[in-house]
What does this fold into?
Amino acid sequence: MFSTLDFDVIRRSWGYLFYEGMTFTLTLTALSALGGLIFGTLIALMRLSGYRLLGRIAGLYVDFMRSLPLVLVIFWFYFLVPYIGQWLTGASRPIRVGAFSSSLITFIMFEAAYFSEIMRAGIQSISRGQPAAASALGLTYAQSMRYVVLPQAFRNMLPVLLTQTIVLFQDTSLVYVLSITDFLGAASKVAQRDGRLVEMYLFAALVYFVISCVASYGVRRLQARISIVR
Amino acid sequence: MNYNWNWNIFFQPNPMGTGTYLDMLLSGLALTIKTALLAWIIALVFGSIIGVLRTLPSRAASWIGFAYVEFFRNMPLLVQLFLWFFVLPELLPRAAGLWLKQLPNAPFWTAAIGVGLFMSARVAVQLAAGVSSLPRGQKQAATALGLTTVQSYRYVLLPMAYRIILPPLTSEFLNTIKNTAVAITIGLLELTGQARAMQEFSFQVFEAFTAATVMYLLINIVVVTAMRFLERWVAISGYISGK
Amino acid sequence: MIEISHVDKWYGPNFQALKDCTTSVAKGEVVVVCGPSGSGKSTLIKCVNALEPIQGGEIILDGIKVNDPKTNLPKLRSRVGMVFQHFELFPHLKIIDNLCLAQEKVLNRSHDKAVEKGKALLERVGLTVHANKYPAELSGGQQQRVAIARALAMDPIAMLFDEPTSALDPEMISEVLDVMVDLARDGMTMMVVTHEMGFARKVAHRVIFMDQGEIVEDANKDDFFGKPRSERAQKFLSKILSH
It folds into this structure.
């Protein structure tokens, strides 16, 4: 069975897999996590702002995004972004958007919904005495959020945020549906070209597995350390 | 925005000869629901077994539970579907592999089983958390009455644990439905797949995706409402969860 | 009836919870176990029906060795009633079903017979009207009386009480103690971990005092309350009787 397999194909395509594919995957993961966190925090602040309308808009956005399959959202943005770009720039035709930018916008918008729920839980977990104490010291609402509440919420939620980032790392593989050369896309292209589906998909699975395992082990260690400090 | 909207497209015949474009989307919706239901049954059965294993005092049992969960949680669902669909038939003995490849509806079965196993790891984590959230005295009281371990789980621990984790199970069920869309990559023409196909045939991108989006939103509303009823139905009078 | 000889119990390699404990409870005898918190008294009573395993010595219950791997523990446990500090009624079952579960699943009694027995016992503890309520709808004192009835439903040869009143509000303590006094006067063999010295004075035959995992004093009631021999027991008594 294994005698007919040719694992040398991995060595031959190493550079393509990692320098092109994995670089794309990791960059997309990191930037999406960062953007998702920033937008997610803004959405969470909107929901908790006390302004009815603002809160409702944010809530609807989150519920809407969380109701849809990521694959569908990827298609949506892939086709929608050129039109939005045209509208924004006033161009006469839908603008061309690269694979990377399109994916990045998709994942930031999608993950913002999930990160916002985490940050919302984090902000709500801070005791009410904290913002009260901050206001008593004369800090404005924005200052008390910026210097007192958000840093604590972020630190408390760090393990959950990182776990969500691991999920995001795995989810970026779905850009496969746009034939983009992320890590899985690269593996798949080699697999098709050389007719080595078994070898390439097993290898891709192994790589994702090892990275995710190591990362989630790190998160567990971090969690243990945080819970000791508390 | 110079896009030619054409909402009448839904009532025009699709090129497959299976009725209108709307029929095409509806058949996708039906397949999404069918796949998700089968996957959910698999997720509940395997997730419950593994979840219970994780709570047993036996080292071996909890290690098996841990390994199972890590295995299914640390690979992208898409990659798992590829493993079941492309790789497994090649690694099996020739006859079995051939049988698998010629299976009618292979994408459907692969999607249901693949998504089901993927979700079972998450159900297992929830169930284990539910069981361990029960007071330790409950297991002891059941044991002291002479119930065996199996009986303690069957009559005392699991009925409470399932009630406690009903809200997170609702979101896991919704995730199961959403995750069936990943099976578009192995050629399953579920709702997202049909919307994509409609876009390719008709070039009416936004109508196709809007329709699919509305259908997903409807599924969500139906499931959430149904689960609320279920929660109320199994609620125990006087008991406030988390107490 | 209960023979405890030279029992050692460890939690991990560094903490010895029980040190060479030896005592016994004869048929029809009521033995009160007291001592400061962390003295091992709850641990000792949980070893009697093997809710906690022991590492040394032996415990013999009605002629059967508890710490023998060949012993059918569920069967043995079903013959000893146990009442817990936090009641541990099963929250998802009605009161009557709490009483019937083990009768049906462990003793294989018919449902009708179990209900009949359960109702008779509810009457005995004065809770007949609550048969169809859920545990969370009852007060703590009522729940504990149900828990006693649940244990009695198994027709136990002995009853173990693990601090049955210490989770109760003060005004509910007496209703539970009254039931226990009745039980003692009917000749039930009882081993009771409690700080209720009034109860001990009223019905106990012997009092065991434990400290730091050791049985420090094991004396007749009158001797114990008259003049404890050990300084530790004297100190303990003066502390809990001083107000």
Q: What stands out?
A: Chain B has a mean pLDDT of 92. The first helix of chain B runs from residue 21 to 55. The interface with chain C takes residues 135, 137-138, 140-148, 151, 155-156, 159-160, 163, 236-240, 243 of chain B (CB under 8 Å). The two ends of chain B are 56 Å apart (CA to CA).
